[in-house]
Amino acid sequence: MNPAAGATEVLRPAPGKWLAMVAISAALAWIGTRILGTHPVVGWSCVVLFGICGALAVLNLWPGASRLVLDADGFEIVSLFRRTRVRWAEVARVGTARVGMHRVVGFDFVDGHAGGERLRRVNRNLSGFQAALPDTYGRSAANLAALLEARLGAHREETLTPS
């Protein structure tokens, strides 16, 4: 077995992106407070919407709130403290896709994977993949996809090689 493929690796999101989101949200919420007197509905809508966006961005800066954990068995996505575990045996392919203006890392499940068929179909129509990672964790999408593909390949080699 490739030692690097078996080692646990923890990737965390780049804090700069989330700090920028906090700053932009705060600025737009402040603008909302400035127009409350003349346009109360628009003002309150801005304050609430961008206040929530800012709060979510602050949460993503919290240690342990968001990360990607890679190990010999698969990967665990932690997003806003919610954990999703995907085993390498469940992954058919990994690659990059463009969703709007952003490059993301997507993956398809193996045939027969249970659950979420409707959501996987919607995701496939949006990105070309059945699922995608919520972040690139401070790397380019291509670099992260290559890392996951290498781990997936090492897992397949290990399962095909008799002990």
Summarize the structure.
The chain is 47% helix and 23% strand.
Q: Report the principal-axis shape.
A: elongated
Rounded Rg? 19 Å
Please provide the count of β strands: 7
Order of helices and strands: HEHHEEEEEHEH
Instruction: Calculate the mean pLDDT score and round it.
Output: 90
Q: Can you tell me the residue ranges where pLDDT is under 50 for at least 5 consecutive residues?
A: none
Share of residues in helices: 40-55%
**Biggest β-sheet strands, sense, barrel:** 4 strands, antiparallel
Strand order of the largest sheet: 1-2-3-4
Task: Report how far the terminal alpha carbons are from each other.
Answer: 10 Å
The protein's oligomeric status is single chain
Structural class: alpha+beta
User: What is the count of DSSP helices, taking H or I runs of 4+ residues?
Assistant: 5
Give the percentage of residues in beta strands: 15-25%
Protein name: PH domain-containing protein
Organism: Luteimonas rhizosphaericola
Pfam family, one: bPH_6
Domain Low molecular weight protein antigen 6 PH: 66-98
